[in-house]
Design goal:
nine-stranded mixed β-sheet, UDP-N-acetylmuramoylalanine-D-glutamate ligase activity, cell shape, cytoplasm, UDP-N-acetylmuramoyl-L-alanine:D-glutamate ligase, cell division
């Protein structure tokens, strides 16, 4: 069986290693350059590869093709594969049949990384032999090749879910859905929503779907679609006989006649959206029968995710917060919503068709000045120019942070929450967040 892998990054090389181990004839093809460390792994394992091209005669003879999530369906080589009826799948689809481990799959437009990390933290703290993968960390396929874990917590992007056929997680979570990546979905929101719900399409009556019952897109989907999975909703406003909710500043979770409660003030994560992430993760912990004391301890000591509402430093009583991972408006909405002090907001980058008006009421209430950090800031200036007292444009992080310091007084906060992708001025959102942290340390 010939397995061709498009993309020589983490998921591609991980799939190559698993494929080789399972007896496939493996070939890796990357249209760009393959990083040195991945090349070494391929060479050591005797796996053939090419870079900076896709040689059709070496690809179109595949029995199956694993495509890295970053490669769009409309790329010429993918179109040719599909015309020939050659299955093009994601790493998750390829790898899952080779493990008997229990799989927890987490998707959503925002909150999925935090929910994935928190779920992994809860299960690991309870002594479970659990792996972390998917969209973060080490490749899922690679971990299966090493055969180490009894269960996996996987962060799954819509792109990964687009490439599944039979994959099903035992427990699935949809954290929320808001418009994102629409350029990959013919600019149709409903295509993106359907893509997220692929996480539950193969689930049976023995499986679970945990979801945000306050989310409009999710609730609308349920009006016209069904899933066989047992439903476990969570909400900030509704109360359930089976599900998770907040009542009298307590998080309450009821699953199969069992109850769990915890004061929200003892949960390390702050902000309403993080209460939702905590409810989702705790629902998994309850389904996996983890002791209440362990859950409480884990929720109170969780450190959070780097670049997501990460408190960097307090300087002259001004708190600097790194939320570089906020690459869309919905993520920035959560960030602004959690601010309790006058805020200087650093925003901007590559816009994915943002509607900034959704942030208007929060900006009026909380933001004293806006610093635009991007190549093209026109849209942000048009929307908020008359709303805040001060609007400044900069083109590098050092200037952004120095300007923010000038505009603050004691008791204020400086929030980097760009609502945009980072590729105009930075390598990626991590690079942007790290530059912010360094600039703050240099003040």
């Amino acid at each position: 069986m010939r397995l061709v892998i498009l993309g020589g990054g983490e998921s591609g090389v991980g799939t190559a290693i698993l494929g080789k181990k399972k007896g496939y004839e493996v070939f890796v093809s990357d249209f760009g350059k393959i990083k040195g460390n991945y090349k070494e792994v391929l060479i050591i394992n005797g796996i053939s590869w090419e870079e900076e091209k896709h040689t059709e005669e070496l690809i179109l003879n595949a029995a199956v093709v694993m495509k890295s999530p970053g490669i769009p369906d409309k790329s010429p080589i993918v179109k040719k594969l599909k015309e020939r009826g050659i299955p093009v799948i994601s790493e998750i689809e390829f790898a899952a049949p080779f493990t008997k481990a229990s799989i927890i799959g987490i998707t959503g437009s925002n909150g999925k990384t935090t929910t994935t990390m928190l779920t992994h933290h809860l299960l690991k703290s309870a002594g479970l032999n659990v792996g972390l993968g998917g969209n973060i960390g080490k490749s899922f396929a690679w971990q299966i090749a090493d055969n180490k874990y009894d269960s996996y917590v996987l962060e799954l992007s819509s792109f990964q879910l687009d490439g599944i056929i039979d994959f099903k997680p035992h427990i699935a979570i949809i954290t929320n859905i808001s418009p994102d990546h629409l350029d990959r979905y013919e600019y149709k929101y409903e295509n993106y929503i359907d893509s997220k719900f692929r996480i539950t399409m193969n689930q049976t009556e023995d499986d679970y779907l945990i979801y945000d019952a306050d989310d409009e897109a999710i609730c609308n989907w349920f009006k016209t679609h069904t899933t066989k999975a047992k439903l476990i909703p969570f909400s900030l406003t509704k109360i359930f006989s089976e599900g998770a909710y907040i009542k009298n500043n307590k998080m309450e979770i009821k699953i199969s006649q069992e109850e769990f409660t915890m004061d929200t003030e003892h949960i390390a994560l702050e902000g309403k959206h993080n209460m939702k992430n905590a409810m989702a993760a705790t629902s998994v912990a309850k389904l996996m029968q983890i002791r209440k004391a362990t859950i409480r301890e884990s929720l109170s000591n969780f450190q959070g995710v780097e670049h997501r509402l990460e408190k960097v430093l307090k300087i002259q009583n001004v708190q600097y917060i790194n939320d570089s991972k906020a690459t869309n408006v919905n993520a920035t909405f959560f960030a602004l919503d959690s601010m309790n002090t006058p805020t200087v907001w650093i925003v901007g980058g590559v816009d994915k068709g943002n509607d900034y008006n959704e942030l208007m009421s929060l900006v009026r209430e909380k933001v004293k000045a806006i610093i635009c950090l991007g190549v093209d800031n026109k849209k942000i200036i048009d929307v908020f120019g008359n709303v805040v007292d001060m609007m400044i444009e900069v083109d590098n992080m050092n200037d952004a942070v120095r300007m923010a310091q000038r505009l603050t007084e004691k008791g204020d906060s400086v929030l980097l929450s760009p609502a945009c992708a980072s590729f105009d001025l930075f390598e990626n959102y991590e690079d942007r967040g790290n530059q912010f942290k360094q600039a703050v340390k240099n003040l």
